[in-house]
Amino acid sequence: MELTRVKFTNLSKELFPGITKARVIEYYIKVAPKMLPYLKDRAVVMHRFPDGIEKEGFFEKDAPPHTPEWVRTFRCYSEHAKREIRYVVCNNLDTLLWLANLASIEINITLSRVDDFERPDLVLIDIDPQNGFGEARGVALELKDVLSQLGLRCYVKTSGIRGLHVLIPIAREYSFSDTRAFAHELARIARREKVKIDYAQNAVAKTMAAPYSLRPLEGAPVSTPLAWEELEKGLSPAEFNINKVAERKDPWKGFFKPQRLIAHGAQG
User: Is this prediction's pTM over 0.70?
Assistant: First the structure.
């Protein structure tokens, strides 16, 4: 691929201890073929760290004023902000590398696509344990069993360092109220005293760390798609970092095949 439109700056700047911006950009170049299909046609929220993760970063929803003309954007009125937001849409390698050059270490995406922003095509269950990754693993496997009984495929990824995200691809025929209610019921079934199961992210313009996104934490962990067999055997999320993820094969076979939720008769 020719990189002709991105002018890189400050490549020697350390964004993680011992990891330069050049290394972050190199990671995103290598992972782009796997990552870009999950970014396609989704609004992006940047989590930027111009001075590295040891300094305070900031979230940025709006495309910066200097955004190049070739970067696709999407405008949407926000009831929460009471103004129009101009989101970046990352559909190609140049845009991904432009984001990386902005020190957007973490790339967050919405659960709907911009051509039908209020109709999600993903349901997200965010599992955040208090006492270690093993608790998240147990909840995720239980959710998989429940969803299998409902005839629904689901997919799992590390959230970054200790938690897990379970994703259910769906047909775009439901509202966020529908998907939030569905996720709430799943959270109720799998509830644990010391595990937070967040279903409220199923809302318009709410985001999650994109598959293969770096997370702004020590060691440069990656929100990494997993095969269920890997989770069943046991693993440590610390294994999945900037040095080890790019060479992995994407385990999410069939991810983009939509399904109908059980309320309408689950279909694979």
Answer: yes
**Hey, CA dihedral for 225, 129, 141, 125, is it positive or negative?**
negative
Query: 168 by DSSP, 3-state: which?
Result: strand
φ, ψ of residue 129 in degrees (nearest 5): -85, 155
Length of the chain: 268
CB of 88 closer than 8 Å to CB of 43: yes
> Are residues 174 and 261 in contact, defined by beta-carbon separation less than 8 angstroms?
yes
The residue type found at 265 is G
Task: Determine the Cα–Cα distance for residues 108 and 93; give it in Å rounded to an integer.
Answer: 16
Q: What is the DSSP letter of 33?
A: H
Beta strands in 57-100 (DSSP E): 58-60, 73-78, 83-89
> Are residues 238 and 162 in contact, defined by beta-carbon separation less than 8 angstroms?
no
Q: Is the distance from CB of 159 to CB of 137 less than 8 angstroms?
A: no
Task: Determine which helix (DSSP H) or strand (DSSP E) holds 122, and give its type and residue range.
Answer: strand 122-129
The CA-based angle 255-104-30, given to 5 degrees, is 55
Tell me how crowded residue 160 is: count the other CB atoms within 10 A of its CB: 22
pLDDT mean values, one per 10 residues, the chain (268 residues)? 76 97 97 98 98 97 96 93 95 97 98 97 95 91 95 95 94 97 93 85 96 96 98 92 96 95 51
User: Left if phi > 0, otherwise alpha if psi is -120 to 50, otherwise beta: which for 97?
Assistant: alpha
Residue 255 main-chain phi, psi, to 5 deg: -60, -40
Closest CA to 207 of 59, 93, 67, 100: 59
CA distance 121 to 248: 25
Phi–psi pair at 252, nearest 5 degrees: -90, 65
